[in-house]
């Protein structure tokens, strides 16, 4: 479920950037003469991931909330087309791309 929707994709990328930044900082212990350079590079990685978290948080507050027709849970959509955060069903705000009911099922 890490890459289920656009919001989760950005959050996963930011989390990986935090791990990479801390890893780069620890990598500086192998070369004490270049420790400051690795610390600054790692700090830039962590700071950029914080900026991404802030940016996606602002986008998340403005995202449209819809109910998924497949799982029935409320999820957020960025843009016109996105996936459900829970079941990965494709959701759309455009009527021509709307989820079509399966006509082979009997209406009971």
Q: What this model shows, in words?
A:
It is a single chain. The chain has one domain. Helix content is about 45%, strand content about 15%. It is built from two helices and four strands; from the N terminus they run ααββββ. The strands form two sheets. Strands 1-2 form a two-stranded antiparallel ribbon. It has a two-stranded antiparallel ribbon with strand order 3-4. A hairpin with a 6-residue loop joins β3 (about 80-85) and β4.
Topology:
Layout lengths: L5 H22 L7 H28 L1 E4 L6 E4 L3 E3 L6 E3 L16
Antiparallel strand pairs: 1-2, 3-4
Helix pairs in contact: 1-2
Radius of gyration: 20 Å
Taking the alpha carbons of the first and last residues, their distance comes to 33 Å
Main sheet specs = 2 strands, antiparallel
Low-confidence stretches: 101-108
The proportion of residues in beta strands is: 5-15%
Structural class determined from secondary elements: alpha+beta
**Mean pLDDT over the full residue set:** 84
* Range of helix content: 40-55%
Keywords: Cell membrane, Membrane, Transmembrane, Transmembrane helix
Protein name: DUF2614 family zinc ribbon-containing protein
Organism: Salinithrix halophila
Pfam families: DUF2614
Main features:
108 residues; alpha+beta; two-stranded antiparallel sheet; two-stranded antiparallel ribbon; 2 helices; disordered C terminus; cell membrane; DUF2614 family zinc ribbon-containing protein; UPF0295
Write a brief caption for the model.
The chain crosses the membrane at residues 12-29, 35-56. By secondary structure, the chain is α+β, with helices and mostly antiparallel strands.
């Amino acid at each position: 479920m890490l890459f289920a929707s656009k919001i989760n994709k950005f959050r996963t990328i930011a989390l990986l950037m935090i791990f990479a930044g801390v890893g780069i900082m620890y990598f500086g212990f192998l070369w004490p003469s270049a420790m400051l350079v690795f610390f600054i590079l790692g700090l830039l990685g962590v700071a950029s991931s914080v900026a991404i978290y802030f940016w996606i948080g602002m986008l998340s507050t403005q995202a449209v909330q819809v109910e998924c027709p497949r799982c029935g849970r409320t999820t957020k959509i960025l843009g016109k087309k996105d996936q459900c955060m829970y079941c990965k069903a494709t959701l759309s705000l455009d009527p021509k791309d709307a989820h079509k009911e399966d006509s082979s099922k009997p209406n009971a």
